[in-house]
Design a protein that fits this description.
30% of the residues lie in helices and 23% in strands. The protein is α+β, with helices and mostly antiparallel strands and 530 residues long. It folds into 3 domains: 135 residues, Alpha-Beta Complex (Dipeptide-binding Protein, domain 1); 103 residues, D-Maltodextrin-Binding Protein, domain 2 (3-Layer(aba) Sandwich); 215 residues, Dipeptide-binding Protein, domain 3 (Roll). Strands 2, 9, 10, 11, 12, 13, 14, 15, 16, 17, 18 and 19 form a 12-stranded mixed sheet that branches. A 4-stranded antiparallel sheet has the order 5-6-8-7, with helices on one face.
């Protein structure tokens, strides 16, 4: 069983309220027997997604389109429910044996899609692969506190950490911690010895223990999965799932309207009314663990001056962005963490909207007439509109802002190198724990590509984040995270804009669909109505 301290901490703080609106309509009461609909198992669910998966190797990428496919092929040791509470999956139970040792008891009735057995050796092989520098996994930072994986017996495994790390079970629920067939891992290493790139074997034929098996991937077009008839848990209701790449918003709406797709993701807030006003389809809403923000490059003038950063934060009306661009699908952010995340401080006082105070701060910083700067965004519809809105709002305090749209890959690379001044960005706290919501973004060791693209370096903040991840006492962690959030309001490396509400367009015949606050779709219990 889980240790009482950790369990209490998670239950108290990880509860996340769902807001699922406009559920699929039931048959009308007057329907005659010939027109009544019934829900039955089977069928092919088609999901129109904005982007294709990048990789089907869970250790190779950290993006949502890939994860949405992979969570159906692979399982984690630990999973999350709709309230972000941790639940058993491939691990039946876990406990913290001492400050630096966690013990997990594994299920004994699980086999991979290739027939190989899941056991402690598989867990050891997966974690060691993630941490292998030759693999270069972008999720290695999630597990780099693990110094050793000990196989106690076939179905008992221990993780030894460099320091006490309370969020380890939550990190093992991250999509990057999904378990891959050990036989496939060995084949992938063999291919590497023959000159192939890491992931080449796994990516071409992913093998997990999940409710669906891999069928085919037509790059840039679709990924198809088939029901795993031998799933260790309750089998899926669908026969298959097809993830179809449909990049244009309006084309996705058309797919939903014609029934060529059953679900479209994401649904733009601008298109909500059209879906809600069209027979046969509805909008599903989900509060999220995400943060939309504007980040500053704190190494460049004038953003190296905290008064300038605070002035910009105070000059931006977040409600105008939420209501005008996101159509109300979000709540204002005071700091980096969304409600429901362990460590979220509901008493936190953010910087309030105050244009006159913003002008005073700019004058105090030596910019009474403002200055010129550039803000970067990728081609996401809401982010471009946000940048344009902020451009107009900051003009009121004398800041002449140029909006530049940058290709997503180039934006990631160039912001990691510090070539930007301001940027519109986002982050999702996937684990439901404040460590994942702050440590990658603000600790000085993570400057650049690991996540700290504002180049925040502050010893006091570092100490809060380090101590919080190295103590098992939930109450002490909460206090440290509260102090860290207060410090981040003061430092203002971000303009904390909003916690977006995730939107899905869904055909009425889809039943049993849920979406986690991490944006990941839960498909095992989905059925299609006849």
């Amino acid at each position: 069983m889980k240790s009482r301290k950790v369990l209490v901490g998670f239950i108290i703080t990880l509860v996340f309220s769902l807001l699922l609106a406009a559920c699929a309509s039931e048959p009308e009461e007057n329907s005659d027997s010939n027109s009544e609909k019934s829900t039955s198992q089977g069928g092919d669910l088609v999901i129109a997604s904005q982007a294709d998966a990048v990789s089907l190797d869970p250790h190779a990428t950290n993006d949502t389109p890939s994860a949405n496919v992979r969570i159906n092929i692979f399982d984690n040791l630990v999973t999350q429910n709709e309230d972000m509470e941790l639940q058993p999956s491939l691990a039946e139970s876990w406990e913290q044996v001492n400050d630096t040792t966690w013990e997990f008891k594994l299920r004994e009735d699980v086999t991979f899609h290739d027939g190989s057995v899941f056991n402690s050796n598989v867990v050891k092989a997966n974690i060691e692969r993630i941490l292998d520098p030759d693999i270069g996994s972008p999720v290695a930072f999630m597990y780099d506190m693990i110094t050793e994986v000990q196989v106690v017996d076939d179905y008992t495994v221990r993780f030894i950490t460099e320091y006490p790390f309370a969020p380890l079970p939550a990190h093992l629920a991250h999509p990057g911690g999904q378990m891959v067939s050990q036989e496939l891992i060995e084949e992938d290493y063999a291919a590497m010895e023959n000159g192939e790139e890491p992931s080449s074997v796994i990516n071409s034929n992913p093998v997990g223990t999940g409710p669906f098996t891999f069928e085919n991937w037509q790059t840039g077009e679709s990924v198809k999965l088939m029901k795993n008839e031998d799933y260790w848990d309750k089998p899926a209701m669908l026969n298959s799932v097809t993830f179809k790449v449909v990049s244009e918003d309006l084309t996705r709406i058309s797919e939903l309207s014609t029934g060529d797709s059953h679900i479209i993701t994401p649904l733009s807030p601008s298109d909500v009314a059209e879906v809600e006003n069209t027979d046969g389809m509805n909008v599903q809403r989900q509060e999220s663990s995400s943060l939309a923000y504007i980040g500053f490059n704190m190494e460049k003038e004038p953003f190296d001056d905290v008064r300038v950063r605070q002035a910009i934060s105070m000059a931006i009306n977040k409600e105008e962005i939420i209501n005008g661009i996101y159509e109300g699908a979000g709540i204002p952010a005071k700091g980096p963490l969304a409600p429901g995340i362990f460590g979220y401080d509901e008493q936190l006082n953010g910087l309030e909207y105050n244009v006159e105070e913003a002008k005073s701060l700019l004058e105090e910083a030596g910019y009474p007439d403002g200055f010129s700067a550039t803000i970067w965004t990728n081609d996401d519809r809401q982010r471009i509109d946000t940048a344009t809105n902020v451009q107009a709002q900051l003009a009121e305090i004398g800041i002449d802002l140029e909006v530049e749209t940058v290709e997503w890959g180039a934006m990631l690379d160039q912001t990691a190198k510090g070539e930007h001044e301001m940027m519109v960005f986002g982050w999702t706290t996937v684990t439901g724990d404040a460590d994942n919501g702050m440590y990658p973004l603000f600790h000085s060791e993570n400057v650049g590509s690991p996540g700290n693209r504002t180049f925040t370096v502050d010893k006091e903040l570092d100490s809060y984040l380090e101590e919080a991840r190295q103590t098992a006492d939930p109450e002490k962690r909460l206090d440290l995270y509260s102090k860290a959030q207060e410090k981040l309001v003061e430092l203002s490396p971000f303009v904390y804009l909003l916690h977006q509400e995730y939107l899905l367009g869904v055909r009425d015949e889809v039943k049993g669909l849920t979406q986690l606050p991490t944006q990941l779709l839960q498909l095992k219990n989905v059925s299609l109505e006849d």
